[in-house]
Amino acid sequence: MYRVLIIDDDIDMTDMLSVLLRTNGFDVLVANSASDGIAAAASTHVDIVILDQVLPVMMGWEVCESIRNFSAVPILMLSVVNKPEVIARALDAGADDYLVKPVSSSVLISHLNTLTRRSHAEIVATSVSSSQLEASQG
Q1: Helices (H), strands (E): how many in the chain?
Q2: Staple partner for 79: which of 37, 53, 55, 69, CB 3.0–4.6 Å?
Q3: Side-chain half-sphere of 2: how many Cα atoms within 13 Å?
Q4: Cα 6 from Cα 26, distance rounded (Å)
Q5: Could you tell me which residues come within 8 angstroms of residue 116 by beta carbon, excluding any fewer than 6 positions away?
Q6: How far is the CA of 7 from the CAs of 48, 78, 123, 129, in angstroms?
Q7: Please, what are the domains in the chain?
Q8: What percent of the chain has pLDDT over 70?
Q9: Paired residues of 4 in beta bridges
Q10: What tens digit of pLDDT does each residue of 6-49 get?
Q11: Residue 64 and residue 68: Cα distance in Å, rounded?
Q12: CA distances (Å), 55 to each of 51, 59, 115, 125, in order?
């Protein structure tokens, strides 16, 4: 089971996403502020982050940059903002994907599955490479 951290100040949205994700087999953590989200990402193992672009105090891309200072966890931006320059800024800040609300639940789940699958494959590949290096040096 993958653990998802949702960072969004809209409690109705986080409640809806939590139900959807739990129904699809994800473990869910919620942070309703940028600072709580950054703290949760730093202190708790999560497999993926869903991050809103528009938050009080900090923009989503700023939260993304903060998380990137200590983690390579996949980050999916989920926002009503559909401006190319904003999307580009989020991706340049380290987001792995960007979806515009409203998005169908099946598309959201597919994107999450793709990101977690890719992330897990990279971890396995890195682990295998490290084991092979150790064996050749041994």
Answers
A1: 5, 5
A2: 53
A3: 23
A4: 12
A5: 2, 47, 48, 74
A6: 11, 10, 24, 33
A7: 3-137 (3.40.50.2300)
A8: 86
A9: 28, 48
A10: 999 999 999 999 999 999 999 999 999 999 999 999 999 999 99
A11: 6
A12: 9, 5, 23, 35
At residue 122, the pLDDT reads 57
Report the distance separating Cα 129 and Cα 135, nearest Å: 10
Single-letter code of the amino acid located at 24: N
Query: Using alpha carbons only, what angle is made at residue 121 by residues 101 and 16, rounded to the nearest 5 degrees?
Result: 25
Secondary structure (H, E, C), 66-129: HHHCCCCCCEEEEECCCCHHHHHHHHHCCCCEEEECCCCHHHHHHHHHHHHHHHHHHHHHHHHH
